[in-house]
Amino acid sequence: MGTTQLEAAPEPKYWHLKTVLTDALDSEFAVGEILPNERDLAARFGVARATLRQALEQLELEGRLQRRRGVGTTVAPPRMGVAVASNDRDWPGGSADAWQAVDSTVDVPPSAVAAALETAPDTEVNVLRRTRVSHGQPVAAELLYVPVGPAPDLTAIDAASGAARARAVVRELQRLGLDGEDRAVELGSARADDAKELDRLPGAPVLVVTTRYFSRGTTAAVSVATYRADTCRLTFGDTAGVEIHHAPQTRAS
Amino acid sequence: MGTTQLEAAPEPKYWHLKTVLTDALDSEFAVGEILPNERDLAARFGVARATLRQALEQLELEGRLQRRRGVGTTVAPPRMGVAVASNDRDWPGGSADAWQAVDSTVDVPPSAVAAALETAPDTEVNVLRRTRVSHGQPVAAELLYVPVGPAPDLTAIDAASGAARARAVVRELQRLGLDGEDRAVELGSARADDAKELDRLPGAPVLVVTTRYFSRGTTAAVSVATYRADTCRLTFGDTAGVEIHHAPQTRAS
DNA sequence: TAGTGGTCTAGACCACGAA
DNA sequence: TCGTGGTCTAGACCACTAG
């Protein structure tokens, strides 16, 4: 990374800076390597720290950098592919399911979820908290809403620890047949609780996957899963595997 | 929206500000309504404009606000559901396909695409530019890569306008049977050309959907589609329709 | 031309992690 | 304790839109 001067340009400085840094990352840095700190980088490029940060923020959004307070800025590995839906049934808790039950309560769901579940607005449902780990690091936090109606009464194990109870609910759920599922993906920002689970700061960009599971003509469960947008590439369909390399979206115009 | 003072809090001001604004949007503003300008808002909340902007940026990221330079900040409508994959075959150009061919060239694809297409790194392929419009506004810009090999030779219409040629390529593609498809979704930022097509500034957050179309055992086409992350909720699966209301991800902890 | 959001600056202090 | 990224300020000017 040279000590290149930023000459006058019609495009914003931070944008130009971003492309310069992108090229540098491609050619001169290895994954995991630590970049100079923000004050030094800003000085080196002759811009204010805020401007430099604007460029770094975008690069982090694109999954090229990872920044940690108190530590520094490092070059991020390519995003990992995370299978969200495959051809085989993935009723919650199925086979190679990487989800880990964390906790369980009974509560009134958000109105949006209640609508999807087709329950009355103030009906209580099972609320399971689960975490997904991939390649050794947390990639997603989920809230799974399961109506108490169709499932057998679970009050017997109400006293059990949240996690054990969560697993029990999932087991019951698996007894039902799965007719189909329905997914939506949108951009969001991590709530404080999700952020903690994902080892990020609140407000970090996440991909919110809302899934409705259908069984016997009704909605048997609704899952709201938030995936780390910086480290994850969500995969759908047949061959979830093959690696698409870095940065499909990083070239300048 | 009151003239509430921001009292001392352990959480960042912009975060608190965001929740205050979110509540105000829910209770006191109608879709399309214009907010006071940033300088007034900042003064009203007793913060610097940069801090106010940090809150507005997050709200825009979450699809709650829409900001346009020279115009103002307005309350955004709920995100629209955009069907990305349904049960029926959606070979490019099929039935209710909302894609509009814009242009067509022959060029060497990015190495990542070449790898997915299983072509040699420097092989030229058809590159189609398409746009997707939903509810009257542009929601996605796509680059469709189609190897020249399997399709009939199209040099005959090379002279035709780009758009006409693009449609011809799609027609040829439809003749092949579709064995399956493979999708990945990740967060990106809009390149300058895509941004223009999407009526956004460069760097705007987008959901990048990479699709591989399989036919006769090989990859017949690769599509890289960038959807506006602020206005779109990507839907997959059976019932693409049903509306999940606003803000699955906006409550404070 | 007036008003809006977008960019940029040069500081300051804070919260966190590691030594 | 020190160095890092995270937050915040109070300005300035620019680019764009609309009247």
CATH class assignment of the largest domain in chain A: Alpha Beta
Number of strands of chain A: 10
Multimer state = homodimer
**Between the first and last Cα atoms of chain A, what is the distance in angstroms?**
21 Å
Radius of gyration of chain A: 22 Å
Topology:
Two copies of one chain form a homodimer.
Chain A lengths: L12 H16 L9 H8 L3 H13 L3 E4 L3 E4 L4 E6 L13 E9 L3 H7 L7 E10 L2 E11 L14 H14 L4 E10 L2 H7 L6 E11 L2 E11 L3 E6 L16
Parallel strand pairs in A: 3-10
Antiparallel strand pairs in A: 1-2, 4-5, 5-6, 6-9, 7-8, 8-9
Helix pairs in contact in A: 1-3, 2-3
Chain A binds a DNA duplex (19 and 19 nucleotides) through helix 3.
Keywords (chains A, B): DNA-binding, Transcription, Transcription regulation
Pfam families (chains A, B): GntR, UTRA
InterPro entries (chains A, B): Bact_HTH_transcr_reg (IPR050679), Chorismate_lyase_/UTRA_dom_sf (IPR028978), Tscrpt_reg_HTH_GntR (IPR000524), UTRA (IPR011663), WH-like_DNA-bd_sf (IPR036388), WH_DNA-bd_sf (IPR036390)
